[in-house]
Amino acid sequence: MKMRSIHDQWSSRLAFILAATGSAVGLGNIWKFPYMAGQNGGGAFVLIYLACIFLIGIPIMIAEVMLGRRARQNPINAMATLAEQENRNPGWKLIGWSGTLAGFIIFSFYSVISGWTLYYVYLSLNHGFSSLSMEESQSLFQKMVENPYGLITCHTLFAGMTLGVVALGIQNGLERAVKVLMPGLLLLLLLLLGYSMSYGSFGETLRFLFQPDWNHLSEQSVLAAMGQAFFTLSLASGAIMVYGSYLPSDTSIPRTCIIVALSDTSIALLSGLVIFPIVFAQGMTPASGPGLIFQTLPVAFGAMPGGQWFAFLFFILFVFAAWTSSISMVEPGVSWLAENHGWTRPRASVMIGFGGWLVGLGTVFSFNLWQEFTILGKTFFECLDYLTSNLMLPLGGMAIAIFACWKLSTNSTRNELNLPDSYEFNLWRWVTGILAPFSVLLVCLNSLGVF
Ligand code: PHE
Hints:
Elements: H1 13-24, H2 27-39, H3 43-71, H4 75-85, H5 94-126, H6 134-146, H7 148-168, H8 171-199, H9 202-210, H10 219-232, H11 239-244, H12 253-281, H13 292-303, H14 307-341, H15 345-366, H16 380-407, H17 410-417, H18 422-447
Helix pairs in contact: 1-8, 1-12, 1-14, 2-10, 2-12, 3-4, 3-9, 3-10, 3-12, 3-16, 3-17, 3-18, 4-5, 5-7, 5-14, 5-15, 5-16, 6-13, 7-14, 7-15, 8-12, 8-14, 9-12, 10-16, 10-18, 13-14, 14-15, 16-18
Phenylalanine binds next to α1, α2, α5, α10 and α14.
């Protein structure tokens, strides 16, 4: 096994925090979290989601970054090397494969939905949303998804943007961009929160999001909440492991991961608090699915003075949030091709990008031409989403936790995590090695109706 690392390093801990937050914060927070909370009954879903972030997500994130940094290679090689170093079954390499594949599949549909945000940037300039009613907003959205050519154009543009950055190497551009864009996004969300609090149904939103109604919670919603926790933290999809492999050795992994996870969770909750007051004030149903934010926010912008410019800024920042996430999905595959097969980064990026773009066409058509074509009641897009968020990520995360706690020697782990306090170290091992895998297993079995 060659221990060749052609990786650079992040220039500082801050650079890693920003890049990992850039990966974590994306469509998952602003687009997916609100519509999933809406579809799964609100409060109870949110509570389980938060429990999953803290009890499963953060411990596994620490494990994943640790594995990446210990091996300093792309996820596939990293897992192969670690298994060999620790005299474990080479089959553990599958963690790297499954993560890299999950990242690729997620990229295929992520690029299509990110294309919607690009289209909304165009709409904000062209249409302006001035005094838009909810019906008009819904029809704007409907018209967009019904037109496969438009969707393909936006999907192509977004996939190209992602691969362009990955081809050039992520260091300079990405590091610099996230430093400005992430705070900008937060600022605009806070501004929108002000609008929603004063004009929308804020009380109803607080009740909906934070008062759990357990009757609404099905086994599938619990699985969805857990899947969302993995998806939003970019876990088990190669992204966090590959970013961890660029992390300077003297950075504290646990502290850094907690900062990333808290920032990510705050942005998701903030998005919920911005969107639902408008949903309720407009008498829209919270369970209306993937179109939720694209239908609600333009109405809010349309009612604000200068709303066109806020809309433009917001959708631009939203594109950037999605951009920094999608870059991290293809990075594992690209670095694998570059490191193992000697491909140049541009060539590897074009191959992965084209593959992802092609699979993405299935997602484009699942909103129009293939809408009726379903497998087990799910469209092509819903199948890919289910396969990754609800199966590959949780099971991959479980394997990461088991490997990090049971297969890696305690010495290696202790060294890498640099937790001299044995209470903290034992707590992490206990939660990651036992509680997290056990909970994932329980939720998966439960969703299969085993008990
Ligand atoms: N965490 C990203 C989001 O919330 C999605 C993502 C998943 C990114 C997997 C990388 C890997 O939008």
